[in-house]
Amino acid sequence: MTRSARSHPTADHRASTMKIAIIGTGYVGLVTGTCFAEVGHEVTCVDNDVRKVEMLRAGGIPIYEPGLEELVKQNVAAGRLRFTASTAEGVEQSQVIFIAVPTPPLPDGGVDLSFIEKVAREVAAAMTDYKIIVDKSTVPVKTGEKVAETIRRYCKAKVEFDVVSNPEFLREGFAVEDLMKPDRVVVGVAGERPVAAMKEIYTPFKAPIIVTDISSAELIKHAANSFLALKISYINAISVICEASGANVQEVANGIGMDARIGRRFLDASLGFGGSCFPKDLSAFIRIAEQLGYDFRLLKEVQRINADQMERFVKKITDTLWVLKDKTLGVLGLAFKQNTDDVRMSPAIDLCQRLLKEGAKLRVHDPQAMEKAKALLPTDGQVTYVADMNAVADGCDALVVATEWPEFKRVDLERAKRGLTHPILFDGRNLFDPAEMARLGFIYKSIGR
Ligand code: UGA
Questions:
Q1: Is-catalytic flag, 277?
Q2: Per-residue model confidence as pLDDT tens digits over 63-73
Q3: Least CB-packed of 118, 235, 249, 427 within 10 Å?
C-alpha cells in the first residue's frame, strides 16, 4: 500500500453502512466501489464482462493503479466488496446504484451514451422498490434528465426513484488517493429525497459536499476538465514564447503558480495532454455547447495548442536528426502519464507512431504500459520492447522522454551517453535539468527551456 493509502480513513471511520451497487468496473467503477467498501459500505460491483468478474473474484486486477490491489483484497476478505455479472442482483441488494460505464467519443466529437442508456433500462427492469440511481460516468449536461425518462419508461414495477449526478474527479495513477481524500464531492439532485443517502455515503471521506441541481453537477465535470486542459495548453503556449525569447517555462510556471489564485499544479509544459478524459471531454463540451447555441472557440484553441505541441516536438527531433529513416530512437514512456498502464490517447504512443512513419526504428520502455502498448504499435519488428530502462539507449541515435514517470529521472545517463551514437536527448516532459545535461555533454532539447 502507498503511504497515502495508509493514511486513508479506515476502520475507525466505518460509522455508517450503505448498500451500494456500482455498475461498470473500469477505472472509475472499480476504484469507487473499492473505496466505498474501504470506509465501511457494502458494495456489489457489477460488470457484464464475465471474464473480468471471474478475474476480480480470483483476486486479479484488470488495471494498474497504485494501492488498489491491496485495497480490493482487504475489502473482499472483509466481506464488504463483491463482484457479479448480474445487474439485477446488484440492484436487488442495494439502495443506491452508481452507473460507472464508459462514455466513449463519437466521430462528431459527441459522446456515445448507449452504455448509459442500456444500464438505465436494465436497472429499471430490476427495480422493485425505491432506488437512487447515481450517474458517475462523465456525461454531457442534460443526460440526467434522459436517464430519469428512460427509467420511468422501462420500470414495470412503477416504483419511485431519484436520479443523481455525482461526477468523479479522480486522476488515473492517483485514483485511490483522489477518491479517499477528495477536494470536494459534487451531488446534483432534482429534489431533497436522495440527499441524506448521498451524504451518508460520502461523510466518511471528510470532504465538503456541494449539493446542486443535476445540470450544474454535470457541467461542473466538463468545466473542471476543460479548465485543467486549458491550464496545460496555456503553459504550453507560454513555452513557445519562452523558447523564442530564451526564457525558462519552469521558472515562469513557478513564478505564476505561487499566486494562490493561479496555483502551480497542471502548469507543467509537455508534448501535450492525452488520456481517455481531457481530449474526449473537450470535444464533448465543445459539441454540447454548439448544440446549446454557443461556439466555444476558447476550447477549440486549447485543442489546437495541444495538437501543435506534438507537431513542434516532432519537428525538434527531425530538425536535429534530419532524416529519421533507418535511425533508431530510444523512447522512455508509453503510458499517457505516470503511474498508469493506460495507453488510450497517449501522446507517447502518438509520438511513436509519428516517428515510425518517418521510418525510424524504436527501442521503447515503460514501467507498466508495455503490454497494452503492443496492441497499438506495429508488430513488424520496427519496435523493440526493452525491459530495462537503462538499456533503452543502447545502439540508438537519440533518446526521447515521452511520459513523466519519476523513475526516468534516475536513468543512467552515463550509460546512455556510451550507448548512443551521439549524446542527444529530447525531453518531452522536462524531467532533466538543462545545465546538468550540458555538463554531461548532451545535446538536450526540452519544452520551453
Ligand atoms: C483527468 C482529471 O485530472 C481528473 O480530475 C478527472 O477525474 C479525470 O481526468 C477524468 O475525467 O476521469 P487523468 O486523465 O487521469 O485525469 O490524468 P491527468 O493527471 O489529468 O493528466 C492528463 C494529461 O495531462 C496527461 O497526459 C498528463 O501527462 C498531462 N499533463 C498533466 C500535462 O501535460 N501537464 C500537466 O501539468 C498536467
A1: yes
A2: 999 999 999 99
A3: 118
